[in-house]
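ARCHIVE RECORD
Type: protein–small molecule complex
Small molecule: zinc ion
Source of inputs: curated submission
Record status: active
Notes field left blank by submitter.
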Amino acid sequence: MSTLRIFDTATRSQREFEPVRPGHASIYLCGATPQSQPHIGHLRSGVAFDILRRWLLAQGYDVALVRNVTDIDDKILTKAAENNRPWWEWVSTYEREFTKAYNTLGVLPPSVEPRATGFVTQMVEYMQRLIDAGFAYAVPGEDGAGSVYFDVAAWNATEGSDYGALSGNRVEDMEQGESDAVGKRSPQDFALWKAAKPGEPSWPTPWGKGRPGWHLECSAMSTYYLGGEFDIHCGGLDLQFPHHENEIAQSHAAGDKFANYWMHNHWVTMAGEKMSKSLGNVLSIANMLEIVRPVELRYYLGSAHYRSVLEYSEAALTEAAAGYRRIEDFVGKFEGVEKGQWTAAFEDAMNDDIAVPKALAEIHTTVRAGNKALGEGNREEAERLAGAVRVMAAVLGFDPLDEQWKDSGEESGADAALDVLVRAELERRTTARAEKDWATADAVRDRLAAAGITITDTADGPTWSLAD
Ligand SMILES: [Zn+2]
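STRUCTURE (tokenized, with ligand):
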């Protein structure tokens, strides 16, 4: 029996996982800032840490996973304004798209999914603690607005401070990526709370009206649900600095122990380029699902080690889909086979910092052994191996016999029956048209349209589809 070791970004080493509370695992994952259609770069962290969660669950942990929604930020306000829509409608629309994408890919729903705007009270409390401790200061703005900044120099001068340790940056080199604001004592200071500009949404605080700074929300939400000390903080590699560095600074400065392990997933790239807006359109979830089934996309996104770059190509995607189908074909030969026991090699792989490529290799080895046993007429052994494949595939979130994925490869009986009936109608229409009986042809088309069926005439004859 091996035990789970995870690569902790903060110490740059693999550390054995020792939870704060035995038998419990508390995880905070920085979620989406929904302002456009989700693409595979967005969904990779959801899938990667869903695998971590499923592995902890499989080992009997009671797992709490908090994944936030950043429902207010500059980009959301800008895009909503450009499109002449209320910001709250804009963000809610794309939040639903993200939820749909997570569900489509079989990412287990988080234990709770808090929104930044619902946590203003907790943020005010956090800022008060930081101001009282001498690590934050308020800067009044115009018309009753006000900002609050974190004082990096004050924190840095304190014994036990560790600013820059997570990302390995020197304090003097750090650029917060924030526009220079009036009243900020140093360029390294970052906004906990942003003064409201005219026309912007705002909430009242003792230091003036404004809106949440991005970093503060995650400290407020994680500690509200998981406590001042919790197990694992996860997110994309690009969040290491400034976001996670600043979360650590404000939480440690406020006296919280905060996260014990930091895990970061790497990017999705295409032709070596990090996901940009234009790539995001090409690699939207909707576009990917034109090429492969949801379960195959899930398999693909989880297949690389979470700390490696996932270099997208359509060839790699379809190759992954073929890999999944070999597993599906094998398990499909054993209707109703129960989940069995995973192999020792699989367990070692998962405990080795969630080494999915090794775990996948073990699943495929087991599939080959199962097919061989079947070829030799040893159905009992083959069935045992199918049970092992099922349980291992379930840990990675793509058990072919899971309710969500079952039948996803074939038409259901109802689909097949509908196809027979619609084709009969289309034949009637074709015959009527050949006889120039337009009334009958139109009646058929109208009846199908009323039933939500769209006909498209092609060179090979009419085809049908369900209208959206
Ligand atoms: Zn965050």
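CURATOR ANNOTATION: Residues 30, 218, 243 surround zinc ion (CB under 6 Å).
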